[in-house]
Every structure is written in C-alpha cells, then in structure tokens.
Design goal:
Elements: H1 3-6, E1 9-15, H2 22-32, E2 40-46, H3 53-63, E3 67-72, H4 78-88, E4 93-96, H5 108-116, E5 121-125, H6 133-151, E6 163-166, H7 167-170, H8 183-189, E7 194-198, H9 214-232, H10 237-264, H11 274-304, E8 313-317
Parallel strand pairs: 1-2, 1-4, 2-3, 5-7
Antiparallel strand pairs: 3-8, 4-6, 5-6
Helix pairs in contact: 6-9, 10-11
Length: 323
C-alpha cells in the first residue's frame, strides 16, 4: 500500500529557533508512536528561525521520509505556522504540538484513543503546568476562564497546543492572529463533540520561551473577534446599525430637550450642551450605519473571493498538499 494513502496521524509542530529541541522531539515522537497501530507523519514548520533549526529539519527530512519540513519566508507567528501544517497534512487526524519539549508525545495515543471513542476534538489540559506561576500560569488561568465564559465552551486549558482533531472538523477553518487556540470553539459551534484530558507538561530544557504577558492581551482581543464573528460575521449591519440607531435616538432626545428648554425654560441653545450632543450623536449614528453598510459589502466580497493563505512557503520537503 502506498505510504501517503495509508497515513492516519499528522503531527504538526511549529518551531522558531529550537535547534536544540528538534532532534530530541523527533526521537520522542517516534518512540511514543513506535507501538501504535496508526501510521503517521511528522510535519515541522520552521517559522522563520534564525539559528540552525532549518539545517536540523532538513537533515531529519532526508533521513526519514515520514518527516516533512516547511520553511516559511519569515516569522509569521504560531497560528500561521499551524495553518501551514494543517494545509499540507495528509492525515485523517491532525495533532498540533509545541516544539519546545514541554508537551509529551506519549500523550498522543491517549488523545487519539478519545477520538476513537466518538469525539471529534480532544484537547490537552496541562493540569500540573511547569511554568512561571505569575508570568505564565496566572494570566493563562484568567484567559481560560474568560474564554470559557464568553464562548460557552468550557475547557480548562485553551492554551495547550497539544490537541487532536478529526480532519473534517478543521478542513475549512482559516486561522489568523492567535486563533489556533479557539479551534475547539469553532468545532463546537459546528456541532462537533469536544472533550479534554490531563496531559503531561515539562519544564523547558533548551532555548528561551517566546511568550510573555502581552500574549494574554492578544488572546482577549482575538476572543472578542471570535465572538463578533460568531454572531455578526454574516450580518455586520446588526451591530453597527444598532449602535448607529442608538446614537440617532440620543440625538433626537437631545434636540427635543433643547427646544423644550428654549420655548418653555427660557434657555437659549448656547446655554446648554444639548445642541453639541445632538450634532455629535447624529454624526456618530450616521457614520455607524454607513460603516455597517460598508461592512456588509466587504462580507459579500469575502464570501465570494478566493481563499488567501496567511503564510508564504519558501521551500518544503517530502510534502504534497493535503486534500
């Protein structure tokens, strides 16, 4: 049987300046899957590394045909790198994971086992996380609580990259910003069954963490985008138009009160701020409605236009674009 036709698992690993971690991670994955009855491929996405990561990946790809290497032209970020891996994966099950050895490949069979039980997504939960409590763990806890509350999809650890997805769940997903962590939300909204299991987490041995407190802010902003898209992506006029009509109502009340004071309260227009409130609210209202109409036109163009990738591949090894 042709190897490409029999692949079941696609392990996707975005890496950025991880020259010391690439080989140990590869060995850990092959050891963890050695006894698995699933065939697999390992796709490393080099997200514009400036160290010797590229050379290490090329060497692995030459030695093992199960290893694919994608080198992006520059650093596009983790989400875009994961998207590149998904687009080029050939497996029925997609398993992204970090490239810093903090995720444990021995958890992969446990994630896949949950999918075999009928789930569409199995998310890892770093229950005993080995990171800085204040800089990493506390912001992550707050972010996870906000995401669960706002999205209605309750997971303990959205930030854990180690997850398993059935291919049909994510084949049409397009990711931007930091939105790879929200895939379980997209999947749930589409009717997928999502579960979560505790996974091992190790302290970083080599290299330096690329994440900081500012990432929590980005996650919260991306969450706002996800929530907006979920409710108003196809009808943005609803949100812009509602706010516009609210401002027009304020404008009407302000000018009506101004006329009342002029004729019954003996106060001229210049004695109150009401005319200014009327002007500002009216302008804001009309602008919001116009923005809503413009957004409607953009949405029409978006749905009718061709898909555009969020990354540019410079070169790749042992890969054919997934179906």
């Amino acid at each position: 049987m042709d190897f490409c036709a029999s692949i079941i698992l696609s392990v996707i690993i975005p890496v950025y300046n991880e020259e010391d971690n690439v080989l140990p991670l590869y060995q850990a994955i092959t050891d963890a899957l050695a006894t698995s009855h699933h065939t697999y491929e390992i796709i490393f996405i080099n997200d514009g590394s400036t160290d010797k990561t590229e050379a290490g990946l090329n060497e692995l790809a030459k030695k093992d045909k199960r290893v694919g290497a994608i080198h992006l032209k520059r650093n596009f970020g983790q989400t875009a790198a994961i998207m590149a891996g998904i687009d080029n994966a050939k497996g029925d099950i997609i398993i992204p994971m970090d490239g810093d050895l903090q995720n444990d490949p021995r958890d992969i069979p446990r994630l896949v086992e949950k999918l075999d039980q009928g789930y569409d997504v199995c998310s890892g939960w770093r229950k005993d996380r080995k990171d800085n409590p204040l800089k990493r763990n506390l912001p992550s806890f707050i972010a996870n609580m906000l995401i669960s509350r706002i999205s209605g999809v309750h997971l303990n650890d959205y930030g854990c990259t180690l997850k398993a997805y059935k291919r049909e769940v994510i084949k049409d997903v397009k990711l931007y910003g930091e939105m790879h962590r929200f895939i379980p939300i997209y999947a749930t909204w589409q009717g997928a069954k999502v579960t979560e299991i505790p996974v091992s987490h190790h302290a970083r041995k080599y290299g330096k963490s690329k994440y900081g407190l500012e990432r929590t802010i980005k996650v919260v902003l991306d969450l706002m985008v996800v929530k907006f898209l979920a409710k108003y992506a196809q009808k943005p006029i609803y949100v812009f138009g509602s706010f516009g009509l609210f401002n027009l109502l304020i404008a009407f009340l302000a000018i009506a009160w101004a006329f009342y004071l002029k004729f019954f309260g003996d106060k001229s227009f210049v004695q109150t701020p009401l005319p200014l409130i009327f002007v500002m609210a009216a302008i804001t209202g009309f602008m919001c409605i116009l923005m809503g109409l413009l957004a409607e036109m953009i949405m029409r163009t978006y749905y009718e236009s061709q898909d555009k990738p969020v990354y540019l591949i410079r070169e790749s090894y042992n890969l054919k674009r997934g179906l």
